[in-house]
Specification:
Layout lengths: L9 H9 L46 H16 L1 H9 L9 H21 L7
Amino acid sequence: MPRQVMFTSMPSVIEYIRAGKLRALAVTTATRSDALPDIPTVGEFLPGYEGGIWYGLGAPKATPAEIVNKLNKEVNAALADPKMKARLADLGGVVLPGSPAEFGKLIAEETEKWGKVIRAANIKPQG
């Protein structure tokens, strides 16, 4: 019987896992999920492994700073709302509020990290 495996975001599959329709083998984050604490991390089997999924908002480069700052303030306020935090936590999400500069740093760090993986694996674009 063929087996299938996939890597996806927890919010998209957590209800299937809870219902027993999907078996989670591990989470790819550095630490276990508070939403599914019995599921091990890949790092428990492969030390040093970490590969989380994150979402963020972007705007065109020429967007005025006051608009970017207003959007950032409003998004962070929404993420601080107890109902929003509780819902995201129930879905296995972790809220990461921050500044535009912090988000830019995260993007740069993730680009560098995964760039190294791509180069080490000699991955080439498909044409």
